[in-house]
Amino acid sequence: MDYAKKIILAIDETSIDRIRTIVESTSKYISTYKLGSIPFTAHGPILVREIIDMGKDVFLDLKYFDIPNTVSKAVEQAINLGVRMITLHAMGGEEMLKRAVEVNSGRSMLFAVTILTSMENSQLSLIGMRGDVEDMVVGLAKMAVNTGIDGIVASGRETSLLRESFGRKPVIVVPGVRMDNNSRDDQKRVVTPRTAFESGADYIVIGRPVTESRYPEKVLEEIIQSCELYK
User: Fold this and answer.
1) Which pTM was predicted?
2) Active site residue 73
3) Kindly report the CA angle at 171 between 34 and 96, in degrees rounded to 5?
4) 56-86 b/e with 16+ CB inside 10 Å = b?
5) How does DSSP assign 109-144, residue by residue?
6) Which of 63, 73, 188, 231 does the annotation list as catalytic?
7) Model confidence over 23-49: pLDDT tens digits?
Protein backbone atom coordinates (compact mmCIF):
# COMPACT_ATOMS: atom_id res chain seq x y z
CA MET A 1 0.00 0.00 0.00
CA ASP A 2 1.23 3.50 -0.83
CA TYR A 3 0.44 5.13 2.49
CA ALA A 4 1.27 8.60 1.24
CA LYS A 5 -1.75 8.40 -1.08
CA LYS A 6 -3.93 7.26 1.81
CA ILE A 7 -3.22 10.25 4.05
CA ILE A 8 -5.61 13.18 3.73
CA LEU A 9 -4.28 16.36 5.29
CA ALA A 10 -6.85 18.52 7.06
CA ILE A 11 -6.37 22.27 6.74
CA ASP A 12 -8.16 24.37 9.35
CA GLU A 13 -6.65 27.77 8.69
CA THR A 14 -8.05 31.15 7.66
CA SER A 15 -4.90 32.75 6.28
CA ILE A 16 -4.57 32.09 2.56
CA ASP A 17 -0.81 32.52 2.79
CA ARG A 18 -0.63 29.99 5.61
CA ILE A 19 -2.74 27.53 3.61
CA ARG A 20 -0.46 27.91 0.60
CA THR A 21 2.58 27.32 2.80
CA ILE A 22 1.05 24.14 4.23
CA VAL A 23 0.27 22.76 0.77
CA GLU A 24 3.70 23.64 -0.57
CA SER A 25 5.53 22.14 2.43
CA THR A 26 3.60 18.85 2.30
CA SER A 27 3.01 18.37 -1.42
CA LYS A 28 5.78 15.78 -1.67
CA TYR A 29 3.62 13.32 0.29
CA ILE A 30 0.06 14.61 0.19
CA SER A 31 -2.23 14.39 -2.83
CA THR A 32 -5.55 15.15 -1.08
CA TYR A 33 -6.34 18.08 1.21
CA LYS A 34 -9.42 18.30 3.39
CA LEU A 35 -11.12 21.68 3.46
CA GLY A 36 -13.74 22.05 6.17
CA SER A 37 -15.98 24.87 7.28
CA ILE A 38 -13.15 27.12 8.55
CA PRO A 39 -11.14 27.64 5.34
CA PHE A 40 -14.20 27.31 3.11
CA THR A 41 -16.08 30.02 5.01
CA ALA A 42 -13.01 32.24 4.80
CA HIS A 43 -12.22 31.76 1.12
CA GLY A 44 -14.95 29.69 -0.52
CA PRO A 45 -14.72 28.17 -4.01
CA ILE A 46 -11.68 30.26 -4.89
CA LEU A 47 -9.57 28.26 -2.42
CA VAL A 48 -10.92 24.96 -3.73
CA ARG A 49 -10.02 25.88 -7.29
CA GLU A 50 -6.57 27.09 -6.29
CA ILE A 51 -5.68 23.80 -4.64
CA ILE A 52 -7.03 21.84 -7.59
CA ASP A 53 -5.02 24.05 -9.94
CA MET A 54 -1.94 23.06 -7.92
CA GLY A 55 -2.55 19.49 -9.07
CA LYS A 56 -4.08 18.31 -5.81
CA ASP A 57 -7.40 16.70 -4.90
CA VAL A 58 -9.85 18.33 -2.51
CA PHE A 59 -11.90 16.54 0.15
CA LEU A 60 -14.71 19.03 0.78
CA ASP A 61 -15.80 18.35 4.34
CA LEU A 62 -18.88 20.49 4.88
CA LYS A 63 -21.02 17.63 6.22
CA TYR A 64 -24.13 18.62 4.31
CA PHE A 65 -27.18 18.20 6.54
CA ASP A 66 -30.42 19.73 5.28
CA ILE A 67 -33.59 18.86 3.42
CA PRO A 68 -32.97 16.55 0.42
CA ASN A 69 -33.54 19.19 -2.24
CA THR A 70 -31.07 21.62 -0.67
CA VAL A 71 -28.40 18.99 -0.18
CA SER A 72 -28.71 17.62 -3.71
CA LYS A 73 -28.21 21.13 -5.12
CA ALA A 74 -25.24 21.76 -2.83
CA VAL A 75 -23.65 18.48 -3.91
CA GLU A 76 -24.15 19.47 -7.55
CA GLN A 77 -22.27 22.71 -6.93
CA ALA A 78 -19.45 20.88 -5.15
CA ILE A 79 -19.14 18.51 -8.09
CA ASN A 80 -18.98 21.46 -10.47
CA LEU A 81 -16.04 22.79 -8.45
CA GLY A 82 -14.16 19.60 -9.24
CA VAL A 83 -13.78 18.24 -5.72
CA ARG A 84 -12.92 14.56 -5.45
CA MET A 85 -14.58 13.75 -2.11
CA ILE A 86 -17.66 15.23 -0.40
CA THR A 87 -19.13 14.61 3.06
CA LEU A 88 -22.77 14.48 4.08
CA HIS A 89 -24.06 13.86 7.58
CA ALA A 90 -25.72 10.46 7.81
CA MET A 91 -28.25 11.85 10.30
CA GLY A 92 -29.76 13.78 7.43
CA GLY A 93 -31.51 10.54 6.64
CA GLU A 94 -32.04 8.05 3.86
CA GLU A 95 -33.87 10.33 1.42
CA MET A 96 -31.25 13.05 1.72
CA LEU A 97 -28.44 10.61 0.98
CA LYS A 98 -30.33 8.99 -1.90
CA ARG A 99 -30.90 12.34 -3.58
CA ALA A 100 -27.20 13.16 -3.25
CA VAL A 101 -26.21 9.81 -4.75
CA GLU A 102 -28.61 10.36 -7.66
CA VAL A 103 -27.30 13.81 -8.52
CA ASN A 104 -23.71 12.70 -8.11
CA SER A 105 -23.93 9.85 -10.63
CA GLY A 106 -20.48 8.63 -9.69
CA ARG A 107 -18.68 11.86 -10.53
CA SER A 108 -17.24 12.46 -7.04
CA MET A 109 -16.94 10.22 -4.00
CA LEU A 110 -19.70 10.76 -1.41
CA PHE A 111 -19.05 9.96 2.24
CA ALA A 112 -21.60 9.67 5.03
CA VAL A 113 -20.34 11.00 8.37
CA THR A 114 -21.59 8.87 11.27
CA ILE A 115 -20.74 10.08 14.80
CA LEU A 116 -18.21 12.90 15.19
CA THR A 117 -14.91 11.87 16.77
CA SER A 118 -15.38 14.59 19.39
CA MET A 119 -18.37 12.71 20.84
CA GLU A 120 -18.60 9.88 23.36
CA ASN A 121 -21.52 8.00 24.92
CA SER A 122 -22.20 10.73 27.48
CA GLN A 123 -22.65 13.34 24.75
CA LEU A 124 -25.03 11.10 22.80
CA SER A 125 -27.33 10.72 25.78
CA LEU A 126 -27.42 14.49 26.29
CA ILE A 127 -28.89 14.98 22.82
CA GLY A 128 -31.45 12.22 23.31
CA MET A 129 -29.79 9.44 21.33
CA ARG A 130 -30.15 5.92 22.68
CA GLY A 131 -27.46 3.26 22.53
CA ASP A 132 -23.71 3.58 22.54
CA VAL A 133 -21.43 5.09 19.93
CA GLU A 134 -20.58 1.78 18.28
CA ASP A 135 -24.25 0.86 17.81
CA MET A 136 -25.04 4.28 16.38
CA VAL A 137 -22.09 4.21 13.97
CA VAL A 138 -22.98 0.78 12.61
CA GLY A 139 -26.66 1.65 12.34
CA LEU A 140 -26.03 4.90 10.49
CA ALA A 141 -23.49 3.20 8.24
CA LYS A 142 -25.96 0.46 7.33
CA MET A 143 -28.57 3.01 6.35
CA ALA A 144 -26.02 4.98 4.32
CA VAL A 145 -24.61 1.95 2.53
CA ASN A 146 -28.12 0.97 1.45
CA THR A 147 -28.47 4.31 -0.36
CA GLY A 148 -25.46 3.59 -2.55
CA ILE A 149 -23.11 6.01 -0.82
CA ASP A 150 -19.42 5.52 -1.66
CA GLY A 151 -17.97 5.63 1.81
CA ILE A 152 -18.29 6.06 5.54
CA VAL A 153 -16.53 8.43 7.91
CA ALA A 154 -16.05 6.97 11.38
CA SER A 155 -13.41 6.87 14.07
CA GLY A 156 -10.77 4.15 14.02
CA ARG A 157 -12.37 2.61 17.09
CA GLU A 158 -15.33 1.49 14.98
CA THR A 159 -13.49 0.56 11.79
CA SER A 160 -13.12 -3.13 12.65
CA LEU A 161 -16.84 -3.37 13.38
CA LEU A 162 -17.65 -1.74 10.05
CA ARG A 163 -15.39 -4.17 8.20
CA GLU A 164 -17.05 -7.10 9.96
CA SER A 165 -20.45 -5.75 8.95
CA PHE A 166 -19.76 -4.71 5.36
CA GLY A 167 -16.51 -6.34 4.22
CA ARG A 168 -14.18 -4.37 1.98
CA LYS A 169 -16.93 -2.04 0.83
CA PRO A 170 -17.65 0.77 1.48
CA VAL A 171 -14.54 2.96 1.51
CA ILE A 172 -13.76 4.00 5.09
CA VAL A 173 -12.20 7.32 6.06
CA VAL A 174 -10.90 7.64 9.63
CA PRO A 175 -10.58 11.18 11.04
CA GLY A 176 -9.32 12.20 14.47
CA VAL A 177 -5.97 10.55 13.90
CA ARG A 178 -3.22 11.43 16.35
CA MET A 179 0.38 10.33 16.77
CA ASP A 180 -0.39 9.04 20.26
CA ASN A 181 -3.55 7.24 21.44
CA ASN A 182 -3.38 9.29 24.62
CA SER A 183 -3.48 12.62 22.80
CA ARG A 184 -6.25 14.81 24.10
CA ASP A 185 -7.73 17.95 22.61
CA ASP A 186 -11.29 18.33 21.36
CA GLN A 187 -11.06 14.87 19.80
CA LYS A 188 -12.16 11.99 22.04
CA ARG A 189 -12.17 8.78 19.98
CA VAL A 190 -8.66 8.94 18.56
CA VAL A 191 -6.33 6.30 17.11
CA THR A 192 -2.80 6.32 15.70
CA PRO A 193 -2.22 6.13 11.94
CA ARG A 194 -0.96 2.58 12.15
CA THR A 195 -3.92 1.42 14.26
CA ALA A 196 -6.35 3.02 11.81
CA PHE A 197 -4.89 1.16 8.84
CA GLU A 198 -4.59 -2.10 10.75
CA SER A 199 -8.28 -1.94 11.63
CA GLY A 200 -9.29 -1.50 7.99
CA ALA A 201 -9.20 2.20 7.11
CA ASP A 202 -8.79 3.08 3.44
CA TYR A 203 -7.85 6.67 4.24
CA ILE A 204 -6.89 8.56 7.37
CA VAL A 205 -7.37 12.26 8.04
CA ILE A 206 -4.73 14.02 10.10
CA GLY A 207 -4.36 17.73 10.63
CA ARG A 208 -2.86 19.55 13.57
CA PRO A 209 -0.03 17.07 14.33
CA VAL A 210 1.27 17.89 10.86
CA THR A 211 0.14 21.45 10.16
CA GLU A 212 1.21 22.77 13.58
CA SER A 213 4.62 21.13 13.38
CA ARG A 214 7.73 23.13 12.49
CA TYR A 215 8.71 20.20 10.28
CA PRO A 216 5.53 18.86 8.65
CA GLU A 217 7.39 16.82 6.05
CA LYS A 218 9.31 15.00 8.79
CA VAL A 219 6.07 14.19 10.65
CA LEU A 220 4.58 12.75 7.46
CA GLU A 221 7.69 10.65 6.91
CA GLU A 222 7.34 9.27 10.46
CA ILE A 223 3.68 8.43 9.87
CA ILE A 224 4.44 6.57 6.66
CA GLN A 225 7.34 4.66 8.21
CA SER A 226 5.25 3.62 11.22
CA CYS A 227 2.53 2.27 8.93
CA GLU A 228 4.97 0.36 6.74
CA LEU A 229 6.25 -1.60 9.73
CA TYR A 230 3.35 -4.03 9.58
CA LYS A 231 3.20 -4.54 5.80
Assistant:
1) 0.90
2) no
3) 75
4) bbbbbbbbbbeebeebbebbeebbeebbebb
5) EEEEE-S-TT--HHHHHHTT--S-HHHHHHHHHHHH
6) 63
7) 999 999 999 999 999 999 999 999 999
